[in-house]
């Protein structure tokens, strides 16, 4: 698909991976609406979520590429807000051809210490949120017989990890949902793929995962992320938000790739 002049919606786009995806698409001439919850929501994790001014900054950065941009505050677990987000995207950037489901949260705790509300929060945002966004946009993409849906999963969705069972389960669900949608929407010229990032140094890592890794690996907190990358990644280096953005652009351009879960993980996962 030629990306110039197309229109996209990226959720969880106030910072980090979502921001990098939005900017990568904008650099290709895509008009981009960026969405985020813009503060502490009903499913808030222990670490600090992105603020509304960060979402506005992302929209401004998108616009610097000479394309249309819009900042939309929305909770992806609320179908009313999701349908409004889709409608606002079409109105403000002129259409919708690409949906990138990036919004997600994590809770780090072993199963015995994980309570039901924490489990529900992670599954609601990471899996139900993807389902609701796909459901809300599917009819539009079918009608125009052209579209791309890219769901940001994780290598944790391919191989579960101790201490992040809810997150791993949610991302495994995203991968399977992606495959089901690829079969359902393929006849209408809509591709559906997922991306599985590996170790990206974002707020999610520093705010939630690094303390546990520090204890597990026996290293100082500041060294936990780098040590984990060194021990688990054949290439020996972390991935960046921009790496994921490049993957999204690749899958948006590809006309004959659908249903895959693309690893961007430095070899940490190879299946």
Provide a descriptive summary of the structure in words.
With 271 residues, the protein is of the alpha/beta class. Helix content is 48%, strand content 14%. The protein has 8 helices and 7 strands, in the order E-H-E-H-E-H-E-H-E-H-E-H-H-H-E. It has helices at 16-27, 52-63, 79-93, 116-144, 165-185, 203-217, 221-232, 241-253, and strands at 7-11, 31-36, 69-73, 98-101, 147-152, 190-197, 261-264. Strands 3-2-1-4-5-6-7 form a 7-stranded parallel β-sheet, with helices on both faces. Helix 1 links the parallel strand 1 (7-11) and strand 2. Helix 3 packs parallel to helix 4 (116-144) and helix 6 packs across helix 7 (221-232). The longest helix has 29 residues, at 116-144. The radius of gyration is 17 Å and the shape is globular. The chain starts with 6 loop residues before the first strand and ends in a 7-residue tail after the last strand.
Fill in the keyword field for this structure.
48% helix; 271 residues; seven-stranded parallel β-sheet; alpha/beta; 8 helices
Straight-line N-to-C gap:
27 Å
- Main beta-sheet strand count, sense and barrel state: 7 strands, parallel
Instruction: Return Rg in Å.
Output: 17 Å
Query: What overall form do the CA principal axes indicate?
Result: globular
Estimated share of beta-strand residues: 5-15%
Biggest sheet, spatial arrangement of strands? 3-2-1-4-5-6-7
Report low-confidence residues grouped into runs of 5 or more: none
Order of helices and strands: EHEHEHEHEHEHHHE
Kindly state the number of beta strands.
7
């Amino acid at each position: 698909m030629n990306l110039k002049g197309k229109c996209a919606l990226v959720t969880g786009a106030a910072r980090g991976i979502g921001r990098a995806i939005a900017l990568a698409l904008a650099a290709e001439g895509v008009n981009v609406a960026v969405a985020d919850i813009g503060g502490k929501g009903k499913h808030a994790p222990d670490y600090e979520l992105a603020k509304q001014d960060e979402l506005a900054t992302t929209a401004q950065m998108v616009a610097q590429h000479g394309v249309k941009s819009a900042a939309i505050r929305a909770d992806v677990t609320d179908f009313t807000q999701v349908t409004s987000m889709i409608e606002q995207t079409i109105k403000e950037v002129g259409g919708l051809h690409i949906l990138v489901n990036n919004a997600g949260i994590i809770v780090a705790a072993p199963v015995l210490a994980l309570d039901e509300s924490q489990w529900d929060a992670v599954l609601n945002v990471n899996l139900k949120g993807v389902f609701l966004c796909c459901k809300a946009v599917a009819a539009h993409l079918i009608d125009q017989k052209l579209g791309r849906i890219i769901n940001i999963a994780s290598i944790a969705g391919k191989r579960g990890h101790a201490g992040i069972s809810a997150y791993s389960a949610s991302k495994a669900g995203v991968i399977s949902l992606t495959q089901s949608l690829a079969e359902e929407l393929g006849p209408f010229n809509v591709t559906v793929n997922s991306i599985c990032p590996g170790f990206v140094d974002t707020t999610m890592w520093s705010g939630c995962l690094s303390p546990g890794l520090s204890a597990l690996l026996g290293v100082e907190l500041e060294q936990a992320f780098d040590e984990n990358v060194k021990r688990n990644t054949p290439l020996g280096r972390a991935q960046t938000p921009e790496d994921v953005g490049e993957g999204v652009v690749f899958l948006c351009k590809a006309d004959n790739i659908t249903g895959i879960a693309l690893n961007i993980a430095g070899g940490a996962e190879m299946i």
